[in-house]
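Q&A log
Question type: sequence-to-structure
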Amino acid sequence: MPRHPTISGVPADLAVILRDIGALVLMQAALMAITVALALAFGEFYVALAFLIAGGITAAAGGTARRLFEDAPNPVMKHGMVIAAGGWFATAIFGAVPLFLSAHLTPVPVMNTYVPIGADYQAIRIDGAMTFSSLAYYGNPLHALFESMSGWTGSGLTMAVHEPSLPRAVQWWRSLIQWVGGVGVIVLTTAILARPGSGSYALYRAETREERIHPSIIHTVQTVWRIFLLYTIIAVVVLFGAIWWSEPQQSLFETFWQSLNHAMTALSTGGFSVTDNSIESYHSPLVEGVLLPIMALGAIAFPIHYVMLHDRDFGELFSDLQTRWLFILFVVGSFVLSVQNIISLPIASSAFTQTGWIGVQNVGLSALAGDAARDSTFQFVSALTCTGFQSSDIGAWSAGGKLIVSGAMVLGGAAGSTVGGIKIIRGYMISKGIQWEFSRVFLPASAVINTRINGRALDRNQMYEEFSEAAIVSMLWIILLITGSVLLSNVAPGASYADALFEVASAQGNVGLSTGIVGPSMSPFGEGMLVLNMWVGRLEIIPVLVFLRSTLFGLNP
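Response status: OK
Response body:
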């Protein structure tokens, strides 16, 4: 047996990685084919051609890698982490191709037909011609990559200044990649393409997922997708009713289109929108109220959903540690942020409108203060669930309000859900670890200390292991956050450090809220850095470090 086995002339380790990344890319080609059909249905022929070409390129690349290295061995954990990191980046690159081609293949007069009648948008110059469609921004390859990475990682930050001016097929593509990316592109591929015993668990864990619903990983991810699809259908229905009630002048199709796209990006905690100014465009407490539980569903671990739906055990919502703390943080965080924003009204009143909120006068709040409380509640839930829907001009908030929301974006929701951030369980483990270390000071050296975490009894070694993992990931996360925010503050003229910190926390936490720094006019350096922040944040750092180490030194110890 050769010391360094090869597959088709390529080292076996690399062959494993290329084969499975090829599977991820091949899956994306199928999604592009669906989008071609949608573009044709809407009469968007140039966009259909762009997706057809991009799908062909993507299918050729993925199919070739999968076929060429089909005899490669099954992946183990070291392969899984490299596949996860490399696969996510490859997926983002190929996902940018149809956006880039759509911008270059669509003539300017056709672009202008996508702009809503009566819209007052700033013109964009393309080769001497003028268009008002944000599709033109994707002609810049970095903008296209940013949009794709933001979509696949569920981040929601966008280069599209005016989403209604995008072709329907592009709007759909942005929502679709968030919907798929929210659960995980690897999870989808495992559910469809993996074989029993094919190393699926290595890929599943490498995508920062640990909890199983069934003993089989393939059955687990298939169940996750069934739950996700069921919730999506329910979300479309309830959002349709809320938007129709709030915007009765809209056509039924436009109402359905907005409810479909917003349901997909809310449940996946992605945050892409098809309206100007995100959810703020509705100015509707009803729409915001309906979105709150949808966003919360996306932030709850999938095993909890399974227990509720399969066993009809709704008590799990309160007995599960992460879910319980998620709801506690919703209430406490919304209250603290509301107080902060109401106190700051003298200097930040322009961020809120005097639409009032049902019943606020009964508790002594003015219409403006009521709107501040409403927006604070919605924005805190949007931040903690890492959804990124925006109902207020956060750029006009006080620094205190921005920092509170930044903290929510850094923490995120439950591990095992669609959210980004450090995750509640790690925050809890760090706090318990600090308490545990402190309590040992007052106990004899011979004392045996066990700790219970979410029903698990942990001995001393297990506690050290759990605490170390949580502390290491969190420390690396914070180091990257601080480094990125310092760098961004130096390339974003006129932005405060609070704004820069907010923007990096949003990108790295895969949230999508913005104070206004992100956009087509931002520094290319800052934009490229945020692309990396979104990538690193989606994979929780360790797989990316393994990927970089493997690129430089190989997979051998």
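Response note: The two ends are 20 Å apart (CA to CA).
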